[in-house]
């Protein structure tokens, strides 16, 4: 009695039963708006954690729950969110992108040096902006090609290209941070519209585009499938390599946009402009509920994860916690998050016969 | 329109010198159901993989509707109208039913790079309607039962119809192994419906099922087609004889070497053992030199039982005693310390450490015999490794060879050696020890099990076939729905027949 039957992996971290006991009847009713949002951001743990954190800081500190702090929260959230959204596409594959800080440095300098600045006589306007973003996309392309076609583990490849990015940025930097002199360009990301920081508006735009890409394009859909079961997708005749590379391009583009956003915010291009974002961005993605093993998660969930990180950082400052302790708190949070999202996957990872 | 929809002529396929398909010819006629039977390793799966474009044949040709074709990829095979329902399920659990059905071939479901979810779901619904399945195309596959997933696979296979000019050929590879009772009936109903517009290849090792649905049956053995029979002129007994191809199995299984174990000391005693949702109330004793065979279909609880006995999963009722002492077996480490070894079915995943040498694999579990304190004694280890390689006839260039480069049979022998080097070993759990091995390697493994017994080691066996279970075991537990239904004494000269076991299994 040979039973090399299908041993499908146990249910991923959705908190829902892995096997319905009876055929699921077609659902005639359209999901309510609430259900839709829940489906998008994942509901459950992370969303509850976010609400609890907000409630806690609102009670514990006098200034947390105020319009001005909300505005500064949104501003702090924006750049992190854009990076994390890009990273989500790569982490969904079960890969990693560690080149965030190098890419941000390069793209911020490319952007500033091509726009009106105090270093050279160039003033390319929007071309500079696009070049800055495309710098990120090109790094993503490089990451993807090296990882997919040369079959080097993604964390190693991106660690290397990240260093290349820092090196390139250092050369462009030339000893002193070039200042962005094009007030029109800077004004795209600097300042507020009403109480809304402009950076937040850019981040919201990126979020919407990313949600559409995830839901309605092959690179978005196949990302889930490849992260879930790559051999099966390959056997179905899908050009797996192409879609993996495209996912890395999306991640690089995210970091590129983030670099440009940071340059708008600070008014300079800088080698260390992305410092600290790598770790926080991975934390945000995982905390939101995108599993490092791939196949599970999404951009909407990352929004929740990034919000948790931002609220936590902001709240701890308002509480007067030592900044050096804060980084440890973040470290603790990511370990807990990885354990939490991986808990129900333990069996799958253990490769049960 | 010819009457032969798919034909294979003189097909040949080798893997590193091992002939998997030897001059196979095969013909499928319009609206016919052809059964394909054979033991494990007979070449069925290889043929299917050639037909689905996963393997390239080394010789021979494939004709579709009379025209010669070559399939370089799975997509080309699908484009020719050949739909596969794989034995290992080929659905991605993290995406929806609709996406799975059209994975890679979304057609009108994706226009200008944009998913038209309404269209995709409608198209998927059409496929599901063909087989009358109530599954919603929006459901994510991870929420479906195995039986439901099988239905989705069927719907996916049927979608080749829209892509090809000709009527589809549907290949079902062991479709019944995960199905039971009513689910089985649903599948048979589906096959009856399918044959009105498709031609079907039905692969199974359940002979009664093959006879029930097939018009003709091909019998494979050792990579060759040994017989073709019409349903009307054959019965299960004859098919079995053709498939096994030998009158006496006693010699193959080294039955003469099986010794009685009455009166030997009890090594392991399992009482009222239970694990929620897996099995309950399991009792047996294992004596020195005894083989206890556990048999049952998938879902009977025997796989979980074997994992519990090795500490890979916990249990919540009852107790296990080993040499008179109660053991908790909370982890594999504890099990190894207590003297239990485990040889898993998925050699590549759990059995061998790929990338390590043969020698390193042999001493992986217990290096104590070749160590001084925490340090390995290189010369002693080398000498011992060479001796095991010689003793077990492991075919390897030398002890330092990367184990991944060995054939399956030789890897399996190295895995066996791994546990045999442990002087503490009292009980060895063998989970499908001969799966995927050729006949010669199987015989070596059988001989080896007899030797273990002679050394006083108790063996718990989850065998590949009923014949294997019967021939090798002293005691057979038949499990169903998580309970031991029957216990057979199978001492030499007192062997039950396969049919006796089957009664308890289904």
How would you portray this structure in words?
- Chain A: Pfam families: BPD_transp_2.
- Chain A: The chain crosses the membrane at residues 40-61, 73-93, 122-142, 154-175, 195-213, 245-264, 276-296, 303-321, 327-345.
- Chain A: This is ABC transporter permease.
- The complex is a heterodimer of chains A (353) and B (506).
- Chain A has 353 residues and is an all-alpha fold.
- Helix content of chain A is 68%, strand content 1%.
- In chain A, a hairpin with a 2-residue loop joins strand 1 and strand 2.
- Chain A has a two-stranded antiparallel sheet.
- Chain A has a single domain (47-52, 62-349), classed as Orthogonal Bundle (ABC transporter involved in vitamin B12 uptake, BtuC).
- The longest helix of chain A is centred in the last third of the chain and has 27 residues, at 240-266.
- Chain A has 14 helices and 2 strands.
- Chain A is globular and about 55 Å long.
- In chain A, helix 4 (100-114) runs antiparallel to helix 5, helix 4 crosses helix 10 and helix 5 packs antiparallel against helix 10 (240-266).
- Chain B is of the alpha/beta class.
- Chain B folds into 3 domains: 4-244, P-loop containing nucleotide triphosphate hydrolases (Rossmann fold), CATH 3.40.50; 264-339 and 426-506, P-loop containing nucleotide triphosphate hydrolases (Rossmann fold, 3-Layer(aba) Sandwich), CATH 3.40.50.300; 357-422, no CATH class.
- In chain B, 32% of the residues lie in helices and 26% in strands.
- In chain B, helix 4 (117-130) crosses helix 5 and helix 15 runs parallel beside helix 16.
- The radius of gyration of chain B is 25 Å and the shape is globular.
- In chain B, 50% of the residues are buried.
- The mean pLDDT of chain B is 82.
- At the A-B interface, helix 9 of A face helix 2, strand 8 and helix 5 of B.
């Amino acid at each position: 009695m040979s039973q090399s039957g299908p041993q499908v992996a146990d249910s991923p971290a959705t908190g829902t039963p892995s096997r319905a006991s009876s055929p699921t009847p077609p659902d005639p009713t359209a999901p309510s708006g609430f259900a839709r949002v829940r489906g998008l951001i994942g509901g459950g743990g992370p969303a509850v954690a976010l609400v609890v954190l907000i409630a806690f800081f609102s009670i514990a500190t006098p200034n947390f729950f105020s319009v001005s702090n909300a505005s500064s929260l949104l501003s702090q959230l924006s750049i992190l969110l854009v990076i994390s959204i890009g990273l989500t596409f790569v982490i969904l594959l079960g890969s990693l992108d560690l080149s965030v800080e190098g890419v941000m440095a390069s793209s911020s300098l490319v952007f500033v040096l091509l726009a009106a600045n105090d270093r050279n006589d160039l003033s390319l306007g929007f071309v500079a902006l696009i070049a800055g973003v495309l710098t990120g996309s090109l790094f993503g392309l490089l990451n993807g090609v090296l990882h997919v076609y040369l079959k080097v583990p993604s964390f190693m490849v991106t660690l290397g290209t990240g260093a290349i990015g820092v090196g390139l940025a250092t050369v462009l930097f030339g000893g002193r941070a070039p200042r962005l002199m094009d007030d029109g360009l800077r004004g795209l990301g600097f300042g507020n519209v009403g109480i809304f920081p402009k950076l937040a508006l850019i981040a919201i735009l990126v979020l919407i585009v990313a949600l559409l890409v995830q839901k309605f394009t092959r690179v978005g859909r196949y990302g889930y499938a490849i992260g879930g079961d790559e051999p099966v997708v390959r056997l179905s005749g899908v050009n797996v390599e192409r879609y993996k590379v495209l996912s890395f391009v999306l991640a690089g583009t995210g970091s590129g946009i983030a670099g440009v956003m940071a340059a708008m915010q600070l008014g300079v291009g800088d080698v260390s402009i992305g410092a600290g974002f790598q770790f926080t961005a991975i934390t945000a993605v995982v905390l939101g509920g995108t599993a490092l093993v791939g196949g599970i998660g999404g951009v909407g969930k990352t929004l929740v994860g990034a919000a948790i990180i931002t609220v936590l950082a902001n709240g701890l400052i308002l509480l007067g916690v030592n900044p050096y302790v804060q980084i440890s708190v973040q470290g603790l949070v990511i370990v807990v998050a990885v354990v939490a999202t991986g808990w129900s996957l333990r069996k799958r990872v253990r490769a049960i016969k | 329109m010819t009457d032969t929809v798919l034909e294979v002529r003189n097909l040949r396929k080798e893997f590193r010198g091992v002939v998997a398909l030897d001059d196979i010819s095969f013909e499928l006629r319009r609206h016919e159901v052809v059964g394909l039977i054979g033991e494990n390793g007979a070449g069925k799966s290889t043929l299917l993989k050639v037909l689905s474009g996963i393997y390239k044949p080394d010789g021979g040709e494939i004709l579709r509707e009379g025209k010669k074709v070559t399939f370089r990829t799975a997509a080309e095979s699908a484009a020719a109208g050949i739909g596969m329902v794989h034995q290992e399920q080929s659905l991605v659990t993290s995406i929806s039913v609709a996406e799975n059905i059209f994975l890679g071939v979304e057609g009108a479901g994706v226009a200008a790079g944009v998913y038209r979810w309404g269209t995709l779901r409608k198209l998927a619904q059409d496929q599901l309607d063909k087989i009358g399945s109530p599954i919603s195309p929006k459901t994510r596959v991870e929420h479906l039962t195995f039986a439901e997933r099988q239905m989705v696979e069927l719907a996916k296979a049927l979608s080749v119809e829209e892509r090809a000019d000709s009527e589809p050929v549907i290949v079902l590879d062991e479709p019944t192994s995960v199905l039971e009772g009513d689910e089985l009936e649903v599948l048979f109903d589906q096959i009856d419906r399918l044959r009105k517009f498709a031609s079907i290849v039905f692969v199974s090792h359940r002979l009664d099922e093959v006879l029930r649905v097939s018009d003709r049956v091909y019998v494979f053995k050792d990579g060759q087609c040994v017989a073709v029979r019409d349903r009307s002129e054959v019965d299960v007994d004859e098919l079995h004889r053709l498939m096994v191809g030998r009158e006496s199995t006693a010699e193959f299984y080294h039955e003469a070497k099986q010794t009685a174990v009455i009166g030997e000391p009890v090594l392991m005693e399992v009482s009222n053992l239970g694990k929620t949702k897996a099995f309950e109330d399991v009792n047996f004793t294992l004596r020195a030199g005894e083989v206890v065979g556990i048999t049952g279909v998938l879902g009977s609880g025997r796989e979980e039982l074997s994992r519990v006995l090795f500490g890979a999963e916990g249990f919540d009722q009852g107790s296990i005693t080993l040499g008179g002492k109660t053991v908790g077996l909370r982890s594999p480490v504890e099990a190894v310390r207590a003297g239990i070894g485990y040889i898993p079915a998925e050699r590549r995943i759990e059995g061998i450490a790929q990338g390590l040498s043969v020698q390193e694999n042999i001493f992986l579990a217990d290096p104590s015999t070749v160590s001084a304190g925490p340090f390995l004694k290189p010369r002693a280890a080398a000498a011992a490794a060479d001796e095991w390689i010689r003793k077990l006839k492991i075919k390897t260039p030398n002890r330092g060879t990367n184990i991944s480069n060995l054939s399956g049979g030789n890897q399996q022998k190295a895995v066996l050696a791994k546990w045999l080097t442990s002087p503490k070993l009292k009980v060895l759990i063998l989970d499908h020890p001969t799966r995927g091995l050729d006949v010669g390697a199987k015989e070596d493994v059988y001989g080896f099990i007899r030797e273990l017994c002679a050394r006083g080691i108790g063996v718990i066996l989850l065998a590949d076939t009923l014949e294997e279970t019967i021939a090798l075991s002293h005691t057979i537990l038949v499990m169903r729905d998580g309970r031991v239904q029957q216990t057979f004494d199978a001492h030499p000269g007192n062997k039950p027949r396969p049919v006796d076991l089957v009664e308890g299994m289904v």
